[in-house]
Amino acid sequence: MPRFHSLHAKILFGYCLLGLLFVALIVSALLQFRKLETKVNEQQSVADFHDEIRYSRRMEKNYLLYRKNGDLAESIERANNALGLIKQLPPRLSDSEVQVDATELLERYRALLIEMANADRFGKVSSEVTDELLITGSRLLSIGEKLDSEARDLLEDAVAKHHRNLQYTILAAILLAIAAGVLVTRSVVKPLRTIETSLGRVATGETGRLDQTADDLEVGSLTQAINRTLSELDERQKAITRSSRLVALGTMLSGVAHELNNPLSNISTSCQILLEEHDDLPPEMCHDLLAQIDGEVLRAQRIVSTLLDFAREKQYDRQPTPARQLVDEVLQLTRSLTPPDATITTDIGEALLVDVDRQRFQQVLINLLQNAADVIGPGGRIHIDARRESNGTRISVADNGPGISPEDLPRIFDPFFSTKAVGKGTGLGLFIVHEIIGQHGGTISVDSQPGQGTRFSIHIPDQKKPENLQ
């Protein structure tokens, strides 16, 4: 197939090729019908020749029975017509010995008829002429019948050949049309299938854009348009992620301020004691107060470091991370978000590693814990557990809140969907969670019944095989 750089050109070429095949089929059929028409005309000329002989003989017999000169004249005229037709017989018959014999016999038969007519004029018709006329006419009629039978056989062969040729032509046209259709379809469908495969890779997170794998102008334009759309969606998703993180960060600031107030208050108290009673305190108590100050400073540094890690924008960097340490840091950041009398329990092994981007996965846990804290109420419970699976790590966050209604359950990961009162939520928390988990190649599922609480289960597949697994 010629190389085209446009789907439009390929499709147009396919239509033109099919049109040419259709025209070729019509032309072939017309030629076959023309040949068949020729064969029919040839057989008709033989049939006319045979009819002239039979009619001449019938007039001859009428003359011999009734002695009417008009019958004899008609017989001679028909014999003359037969002589004229014998020259129009098909070429396949004109060279045969049968036709040569027919010409000689016809000329002799006409001569006998003329001789009989002359003899009858003078009343001297001999029995020898009559006998020879009957014998010659009989032989001539046999030859005419033979020529007619042969012509019919030739016509039947021509009809059968015409049928075969027409069938072969139709079959060839169908095969060529199928071949052309397959070539055009492949040339058109193949690049579209490539785009479909590339989109599947984009959906699974293997790549963020489509590769230009076809030279077709339309496919190239479509690929560029899809890549532009993917780029715009990626930018919007990053903007939504940043906005969600800023919202979560703002929510945490109150908790962080509370967490920092405790060590700062302890530091201030210890410093005041040292300043006011330094000379009266024993060295051991001074050492203990200084140790408390140092410990509280380190505690404040850890809080600030965790907060900076969460707020800092960076590329995805998945590393085996201790799951318990990650959860403890998140609990420290979100402690003020839970009701004072709520209970938070964990069941996570010390050596359990999870293959995640630390910053993004902190955002996942913060959003889930904030959602749970908003619904459990006073005296509520939140339980976090993590365990190894065959090809990754599963982390679950469960609460004993009111649960999620069945009609809302299918929509909880939709952007801007929220069951909270107006002004209490943006509807982006679980959407961001779903997106971050998807970018890790993982899955998130929810199990909830009204009045029986909610459990979010996250599966994170291994990128690198972690060591020291529990």
The second-level CATH architecture of the largest domain is Up-down Bundle
Strand order of the largest sheet: 2-4-5-7-6
Mean pLDDT: 78
What percent of the residues sit in helical stretches (DSSP H or I)?
55-70%
User: What string, H for helix and E for strand, traces the elements in order?
Assistant: HHHHHHHEHEEHEEHEE
Largest sheet: 5 strands, mixed
Number of helices: 10
Distance between the termini: 61 Å
Number of strands: 7
Shape: rod-shaped
Number of domains: 3
Structure, explained:
α2 runs antiparallel to α4 and α4 (97-121) packs antiparallel against α5. A hairpin with a 2-residue loop joins β4 and β5 (392-399). This protein has ten helices and seven strands. It starts with 6 loop residues before the first helix and ends in a 9-residue tail after the last strand. The protein is rod-shaped, with a radius of gyration of 53 Å. Mean pLDDT is 78; it is low at 466-470. It has 470 residues and is of the alpha+beta class. The protein is 67% helix and 10% strand. It has three domains: 7-195, Up-down Bundle (Four Helix Bundle (Hemerythrin (Met), subunit A)), CATH 1.20.120; 239-313, Helix Hairpins; 318-470, 2-Layer Sandwich (Heat Shock Protein 90). The longest helix has 78 residues, at 127-204. The protein has helices at residues 7-66, 69-86, 91-94, 97-121, 127-204, 217-277, 283-311, 323-333, 358-376, 429-439, and strands at residues 318-322, 343-347, 353-357, 381-389, 392-399, 443-448, 454-461.
